Amino acid sequence: MKILALCGSLRSGSLNAAVLRSAADLFVPPWEITVEPDLSRLPFFNADVEMNDLPAVVAELRAKVGASDGLLISSPEYAHGTSGVLKNALEWLVGGGEIAEKPVALMSASPAVTGGDRARAWLTETLTVMGASVLTESLRVPMATRKVTDGRLTDEPTLAEMRELLDTLARTVAERRAENGVLAQ
Ligand SMILES: Cc1cc2nc3c(=O)[nH]c(=O)nc-3n(C[C@H](O)[C@H](O)[C@H](O)COP(=O)(O)O)c2cc1C
Q1: How many other C-beta atoms are found inside a 10 Å radius of the C-beta of residue 114?
Q2: pTM here?
Q3: Among 6, 9, 11, 77, which residue has the most ligand 1 atoms within 8 Å of its CB, making it the best to mutate?
């Protein structure tokens, strides 16, 4: 069962990348997680380009989303929304339709006490309109600079919450596969 992870931050020292890295550490077979390496490789969305000459990187991302059983997204909050880089990736995914009905789990890390709540709310709205099945449960990591060490989430209570979220994502994916007649592994 394949999960595709997207990070909304490009920063080398990103708190959200650290959160995703720690989530990836928790995956065990038959679960597989692939972290999309760099959303900045995508050009800015342009409907003319989409129609006439779809860039290979976009086709690649759409195929990865299509081949996945679910998505795990961690996003920073920028000006009370998600990041431009993540919004741009989602715009490219609208037309492909691969995200429809995919279970999506959201996480956000912020140095602020609000923990990126508005970025997750914003993403929930956008992903829902795209037809994705966004989990009600999500992970917020407030005051994240105190909870990340050496590029990993090290705060035990938050890690416990993360395990719960990943369990919920796994359960949802398994249920979805069973509904679709695929034998859950
Ligand atoms: C342009 C800009 C806007 C920001 N706006 C918000 C905001 O609205 N809410 C918030 O909690 N943090 C905000 N921040 C702080 C980010 O949450 C913080 O930089 C965070 O570490 C970014 O995520 P990253 O560590 O994964 O790169 C903002 C930062 C920048 C640079």
Answers
A1: 14
A2: 0.96
A3: 77
